[in-house]
Specification:
The protein is α+β, with helices and mostly antiparallel strands and 440 residues long. Helix content is 32%, strand content 28%. It contains 13 helices and 23 strands. Strands 3, 7, 8, 9, 10, 11, 12, 13 and 16 form a 9-stranded mixed β-sheet that branches. A hairpin with a 2-residue loop joins β17 and β18. α10 runs parallel beside α13.
Length: 440
């Protein structure tokens, strides 16, 4: 992508309405634009990051055996009346009526709809276990949306829903998602701590929030410091291994960790002072097992091996991609801008032409640009005639992991400079060596 032809509306000044780092940087870099209170457009740079976050989420959901579908954003109120949640959910639900005066709602979550899909299609235990997920816009009419897309009214959500014959089977499905979430957040460059949590309006009796520690977190969390040393489950984890997944779950829940709603001060006080950690945290995922809370009122049953009908046991599992992007920024930035983990960076590298219009610089940059693209890399080519300081500031601000700097002197010597955005380390290589290193 040539910067001269790209849509990158960078702001020179910090927006006054932005209270936290991620909101400020997402506006400054032109990742998002506010359309109304708590509702944002994702502009090209932000959309590239969001798509990469979604791709990782999909890969790990699929690896754990979940199957993707797509459900509508507008839902019939009848389903929610059937489950008993229509009146209970509160003012966060946007209730509307269509032209036939039928009550509808903009879905804040999808337990009722997925239960309806399941009950109309699955009749036998032989079709279980089943986990269905989608990545879809949701709407919750927050009384005080803030912090940009960290807490917005319209947001993207990956929600998965598991269906099992027994409670034991459902706990195994829960453990699959628990492990998948650990892997997902690690691949996004985050250390997420699973904490016992309140189930809220979703319901159920078994729930964990996945929290990353950050000074701008909305809630206070309490945990044992040993979490930072726990190993992330490997890529070859067997998701059909019941005992293996249970052992991973047991390890990650073996020491104290709780949100403020579930905090037990007495239990926390038993931890040695040196191992005790209380901090602010950002919720990036939430999983629930709620048994027959929805299958019972909505009649979601299957025929069991005994020939009798059984209510299915369910769980739901949420990750907010539009919340994850600012969470990553909160965890990875400096005074110059964003520092993207390579896995979700909008571009793998930025080629900076220090003297656009100079024949040697242009030729070298075109060669670098073509070689990286041919190797399947996402490349931004700064071919603008801006001053060097502006080019460097832009590259640092948007946080591309590697900067490839081609200036007249270096090019004349057959060399370019590589800068690592995270460490600031620089090295001078021949053009061929730089291409080989960046395409390896």
């Amino acid at each position: 992508m040539r910067l001269s032809r790209y849509f990158l509306p960078i702001l020179k000044e910090n927006p006054k309405e932005a209270e936290i780092v991620s909101h400020r940087l997402m506006l400054r870099t032109g990742m998002i634009r506010q359309q109304s209170q708590g509702i944002y457009s994702w502009l090209p740079l932000g959309k590239r990051v969001l798509d990469k976050v979604n791709a990782i989420i999909r890969e790990e959901q699929n690896r754990a055996g979940a199957i993707e579908l797509s459900m509508p954003t507008l839902q019939s109120a009848e389903l929610w009346q059937e489950s008993g949640r229509y009146e209970d959910y509160g003012k966060e639900m946007l209730r509307i009526r269509d032209r036939q005066d039928r009550p509808m709602l903009y879905g804040p979550t999808n337990e009722e709809m997925i239960t309806d899909i399941f009950r109309s299609s699955v009749k036998s235990y032989k079709s279980l276990p089943l986990n269905l997920y989608h990545i879809q816009l949701k709407f919750r009419d927050e009384i005080r949306p803030r912090f940009g897309t960290m807490r917005s009214r319209e947001f993207l959500m990956k929600d998965a829903y598991s269906f099992d014959l027994t409670q034991a089977d459902a706990i195994h499905s829960y453990n699959k998602m628990f492990v998948a979430y650990l892997r997902t957040f690690d691949r996004l460059g985050l250390r997420a701590i699973p904490m016992r949590a309140d189930t809220g309006p979703i319901g159920g009796n078994h729930s964990h929030e996945f929290i990353i520690l950050a000074d701008t977190g909305e809630s206070e969390v309490f945990c044992h410091k040993s979490f930072v040393d726990f190993d992330i489950p490997s890529v070859d984890t067997d998701f059909d291994d019941v005992d293996g997944l249970q052992s991973i779950f047991d390890k990650w829940t073996s020491v104290y960790a709780a949100t403020s709603e579930m905090h037990d001060e007495a239990a926390f006080d038993t931890i040695a002072d040196a191992d005790r950690l209380s901090a602010r945290g950002i919720e990036v995922g939430h999983i629930f097992y709620f048994g027959t809370k929805y299958s019972e009122p909505m009649g979601a049953k299957v025929q069991g091996p005994d020939g009798k009908e059984h209510l299915v046991h369910m769980g739901s599992y949420g990750i907010g991609p539009t919340r994850l992007v600012p969470a990553i920024i909160e965890a990875s930035h400096d005074e110059n801008g964003i520092i993207w983990p390579a896995s979700v960076a909008p571009f793998d590298a930025v080629v900076i032409n220090m003297k656009a219009g100079d024949e040697a610089c242009d030729s070298t940059c075109e060669r670098l640009y073509a070689a990286l693209q041919n190797a399947g890399k996402d490349v931004l080519y700064d071919d603008t005639d801006d001053r060097a300081g502006t080019k460097f500031a832009t590259a640092d601000l948007i946080g591309v992991p590697v900067q490839v700097i081609a200036g007249p002197r270096a090019v004349a010597a057959g060399e370019v400079e590589l800068k690592d955005r995270k460490t600031g380390a620089r090295e001078t290589l021949t053009i061929e060596a730089a291409i080989n290193k960046l395409t390896a």
